[in-house]
Every structure is written in C-alpha cells, then in structure tokens.
Write a structure and sequence with these properties.
The two termini are 35 Å apart. It contains 10 helices and 12 strands. A 6-stranded parallel sheet has the order 2-1-3-4-5-10, sandwiched between helices. It is an alpha/beta fold. Helix 1 crosses helix 7 and helix 6 runs parallel beside helix 8.
C-alpha cells in the first residue's frame, strides 16, 4: 500500500536514507530539508518521520548544550503540526535517553519499559525523554523507535565509525577514550526495514532498534584496521578525547516479538563503509 509520507531532516544520514528507501518501496515521499520551525506545509500526510534535530558526535553534544536543547522546541512545533496534519508519527528517540545507571553497567541490555525511571546521561538524552513525554499527549498513533548506534555508508565524520575508518586509512589504529566503552552497532539497512515496518503498523508501539550485542570501541578499531590493511595493530587510546557513556546495549525481546531482527554483522557493515569511502 502506497503511503504519503513527510520526512523532516531529510538531508541527514537517517532522513536521507529513509527517504531513498521508502521511495524505492513505492511510497509518496516528501523529503523536507527546511527549518521545521517556520516552513512546515499546510498539507495532510499519512505519516511523519521526524528526524530534524541538532545532532553530532560526542564533541557536538558536549560542546553545544544549548543548541541541543533547541531540539525540544523543534519537536514541540513539529508534533503540534503533526497532530493536525498527519495520521501517524514515527519518531526516532535514542538509547541515550535510557537511565544513566543502565549506561554504566557492562552487558546490561536496556528494556523499553525501563525508560524514564532515572536521570539521563546528557542533555541530548534528556531532550529525547521530553519528546517522548510530549508524544504521549497526542491524539494520533505514535511509534517511538529507540535506535542504538546506527552506522553505514555516507555517515558524517562526526560519528565514531567513519572517523575510525578514516584514521585507519591513514595508518592509525585508534579510538577516543579508553576504548573499553561498548556500543550496540546497528547497520543502516537493518534499521530501514524496521522504519518501514512501523509505517504499516496501526497500534502505537515503542521499540528498540538493536542487535543485543555489546562491542567495545577497541574491537571496532581492530576490525577496521584489519579490513583496511589485512593485518592487526595495537589500538592507541586517545584518553584526552571524550568517551561518552560507558556501555549501551539494547534488549531485542520486543523487536523479535514483532518478527524484527538486526542481523547484519559488524564486519560486513564496515566492509560496505570502506568500499563506499573508496568509490
């Protein structure tokens, strides 16, 4: 069934890939790249994917705290508009909005129902927490996605994996921080399938987008360097750089109950990124 869809933030990594993917699936997609605070259209849509936000890597979040909090106003304006003009919202929240204590314990999967029970790790996570609270007041169905570390070809250099690949191509095997911090790495193609699945789901839901596997930054850097050079190298830790949360891994129980999976291996995803960077 063809759906009429508006995608905000359609010039970003997630937004642009979602627009491309849904168009390929035959949907009527409006890829919106303007400032949502002034220019949202007076037109009705079957669904809104709201990716527009101030984002960035670890430094972007840590060094721009007031810019990050503007996301709350961006979300407020967009949700108010969508409540009138859209039949459904699909919103990318974040694993960053889970309680800090869950992000400090190794190999502790975060479950959807644990959300909002304690303080968040940073202002970015807090903004997402506020957004989810606003969404619960709307009169239309809302699907909340809580993605973990989505990566893939074309991602900005502000993010860890593209930066690690770039350094490896320059002969350096290194990570920011201690390298012991873990993330749940989700390949973009797996995420896009879940994005479209939610487009056809009627009842509101909240779901992690995760693999359930915690992989350290050191393991990532080792894998990248070996794929680039064919040999292993010791990982240099840049302890003067920000490290972020200690551990983030998602429970996949709810995903799997919906028949959804993120099965792409990290090695395969990194290979695709390296190939893309060489084209």
């Amino acid at each position: 069934m063809c759906m009429k869809v508006l995608i905000t933030g359609a010039d970003g990594f997630l937004g642009s890939n979602t627009a491309r993917y849904l168009k390929e699936k035959g949907h009527d997609v409006t890829a919106f790249t303007q400032d949502v605070r002034r220019n949202l259209p007076y037109e009705r849509f079957d669904c809104l994917y709201h990716f527009a936000a101030f984002v960035g890597g670890r430094k972007g979040i840590d060094n721009n705290k007031w810019l990050i909090t503007e996301n709350i106003e961006i979300d407020r304006i967009t949700f108010k508009w969508a409540d009138e003009f859209c039949k459904k919202i699909i919103y990318p929240s974040s694993c960053a909005a889970y309680p800090t204590y869950l992000q400090e314990a190794p190999n502790t999967p975060m479950h959807e129902e644990q959300f909002g029970s304690s303080k968040t790790f940073d202002l970015y996570g807090l903004a997402k927490l506020v957004a989810e609270s606003m969404l619960r007041t709307l009169d239309i169905p809302v699907h909340v996605m809580r993605p973990f570390s989505i990566y893939g070809p074309g991602q900005d250099m502000d993010y860890p994996l593209p930066a690690i690949i770039q350094r490896a191509k320059q002969g350096e095997c290194s990570v920011w921080g201690s390298g012991t911090q873990t993330r749940d790495w989700v390949y973009i193609d797996d995420a896009l399938k879940i994005f479209e699945y939610l487009l056809h789901k009627q009842e509101s839901t909240t779901v992690n987008i995760a693999t359930g596997k915690a992989i350290t930054f050191k393991q990532v850097a080792e894998t990248v360097y070996k794929l680039v050079h064919g040999i292993t190298a010791p990982v240099k830790t840049q302890t003067n750089e920000p490290e972020g949360a200690g551990h983030r891994v998602g429970s996949t129980e709810r995903m799997e109950s919906l028949g959804l999976h993120c099965n792409t291996t990290l090695e395969y995803g990194i290979r695709k990124m390296i190939q893309w960077s060489q084209d």
